[in-house]
Amino acid sequence: MCAALREARQASGIGVRELGRLLGISDANISLWENCHRIPNVETVAMILTAVRVSPEERERILDLARNVREPNWLTVGIEGIPQQLAGVVECERAATSIVEWIPMGIPGLLQTSDYTRTIKESSGLPQEDIELRVMISAGRRDVITRVNNPVQFEALIDEAGLREQIGSPAIMVDQLRHLNAMGERPNVVIRVVPRGVGWHPGWVGPFILFEFPDSSPVVYFEHYSSGAFVPTEHDVAAYKKAINRLRGIARSPEESSALIAEIAHQMEAAP
Fold this sequence. Notes:
Helix 4 (42-52) runs antiparallel to helix 5, helix 7 runs antiparallel to helix 8 (128-141) and helix 11 packs antiparallel against helix 13 (254-270). The N and C termini lie far apart (49 Å). 32% of the residues are buried. It contains 13 helices and 7 strands. Strands 1-7-6-5-2-3-4 form a 7-stranded mixed sheet, with helices on both faces. By secondary structure, the chain is of the alpha/beta class. The protein has 2 domains: 1-70, lambda repressor-like DNA-binding domains (434 Repressor (Amino-terminal Domain), Orthogonal Bundle); 73-270, Endonuclease, Chain A, CATH 3.30.870.10.
């Protein structure tokens, strides 16, 4: 939500001091809200959005974030167009300093090519205009790990089965695997593959993402088919940190993972 407030103000061309003067609020408080150091109440958020003159649709989206952000377990349900949980994930990605994602099937969203993302959305039966909108949003999300200044530290723990499952044509899948290895060469990105045949591990329960922030408590996010849940409770976060350490313990090293990804890409490319 904090990033959404900051972007709404910047889009309006209003500076922090000017907004503070308009609302009779100190610019220091506005900066604290925009940088996630404090959480404003819903009434204050509404007042800010009115001052910066956002569209009715954007106003409702940000107010929904504000209403739910204090919930102990924030469950977000999909809405027509862009799911609410996607908006929440995007805000977390922008504010985070570190992201760790475990995915048992497929490729993490931040590491997907546009063709791979488009193929998944087409398979879900969405209208073409919604598909292209979500592909565009997905491409924009990658900026958090590719930007020049302070890119987020991203670690992907991927099950080997997800790499071998062909999504789209062989060409799309080969391009995706090569893109994965190219992203893994970035200093802020670590990719580790959990091999087959290691027996039960905590990742069997399902995918999850751990977000860590500079000045607020970490949050675990679970994505479902048409809804998602944000869980900030300390004992749950601690349990998932242990799960991440367990997955790291059985995963291949980044170098071994890169070699395996390249091998799978070669096999797919050589297949008749």
